[in-house]
Amino acid sequence: xxxxxxxxxxxxxxxxxxxxxxxxxxxxxxxxxxxxxxxxxxxxxxxxxxxxxxxxxxxxxxxxxxxxxxxxxxxxxxxxxxxxxxxxxxxxxxxxxxxxxxxxxxxxxxxxxxxxxxxxxxxxxxxxxxxxxxxxxxxxxxxxxxxxxxxxxxxxxxxxxxxxxxxxxxxxxxxxxxxxxxxxxxxxxxxxxxxxxxxxxxxxxxxxxxxxxxxxxxxxxxxxxxxxxxxxxxxxxxxxxxxxxxxxxxxxxxxxxxxxxxxxxxxxxxxxxxxxxxxxxxxxxxxxxxxxxxxxxxxxxxxxxxxxxxxxxxxxxxxxxxxxxxxxxxxxxxxxxxxxxxxxxxxxxxxxxxxxxxxxxxxxxxxxxxxxxxxxxxxxxxxxxxxxxxxxxxxxxxxxxxxxxxxxxxxxxxxxxxxxxxxxxxxxxxxxxxxxxxxxxxxxxxxxxxxxxxxxxxxxxxxxxxxxx
Length: 469
Known about the structure:
Strand content: 15-25%
Largest sheet: 6 strands, antiparallel
Number of strands: 19
Number of helices: 11
Helix content: 10-25%
Order of helices and strands: EHEEEHEHEHEEEHEHHEHHHHEEEEEEEE
Radius of gyration: 25 Å
Structural class: alpha+beta
């Protein structure tokens, strides 16, 4: 097991020692004077029209310093000034502090927001948006603006390259182990790919790929193919793909897709080439917490839109214990446990062969096969319902992975698939099959495979040497 730390270089708390010293500093000669982004705001008017991620102005007037400080997120999270070399040196030392204690790497949080345009130009509203909330050009909704001057600026990629160099030179090349880095950054595909590195300099091992967070019940086979191929086609040569389907900011898989699609989605996640990221609880099918039904038992914790993201953040459901489902020794957890913990939990699912957890473990075991570890991928089929791909590697068995993301049964025809086997063995299925079950031997050159909505199937066949002379 490896330990990856969450590293947040964009901002600190307004209660931090650094911020208190900066807001009290009266001279530019004070080391902390420019640790944060400060600007004059006469008559309590912000320096420009920049909008914070959670809405409202990105600027907050501070009565102690008599200036405004920048906060891309909450008012309680002032942005550090990464144009100040003292600050970047401090951040380097934060990395060293944890690396010296043995951590294996970092998830760099909110890094796309780390730099701003120092000319402080106004940003412009999005054009051609259909969001009625964006019609007023004076609105303060983040999603209504082009963030040309406040997100994914060149300095962001440079600092990632700097930290890659630090970890390689000071740790890996000195025999202290290879150190991993991934980044949390939202943007278009071309921008996101820059986090892999630029100008012959390595960056993150990979930026988190959030495309599959857009999966929902209206995203059929063609849609899934498009989301997958955006990353595969856009990725620089020699780099590692990765896939994220659930996280702390989006509805859980079972809630947005339906519980009958959970195992199909996990099949996609674990058998695509690259690194999968599973959000805790998605291996057992945890659902969003119904905060409305809890009434007075629920107190919103997420500051964004009065608890908007709380439902997907409820405690992990380990067992049937009435004390926080085994998550804690007290019931006074940050958020309440989902009442369905009595049936959806690790302990119950460990005892049932067909449970979501057992299916997840079977997929994780299948993923250990060399074909899935090292093999290539090619698309086998895509239509409004089915998305299918082949994983293959010279000299060892190949696998067809087919999933029905549609809303009706479909008979999938693979007769025209390159290398379709006469004898393929079904080694995995997510549920009750219509035309095939595990250990069946099927001829994909003549037989169609009927898949129900939310059903996935994996067919294995031996490597065949062709045209050997």
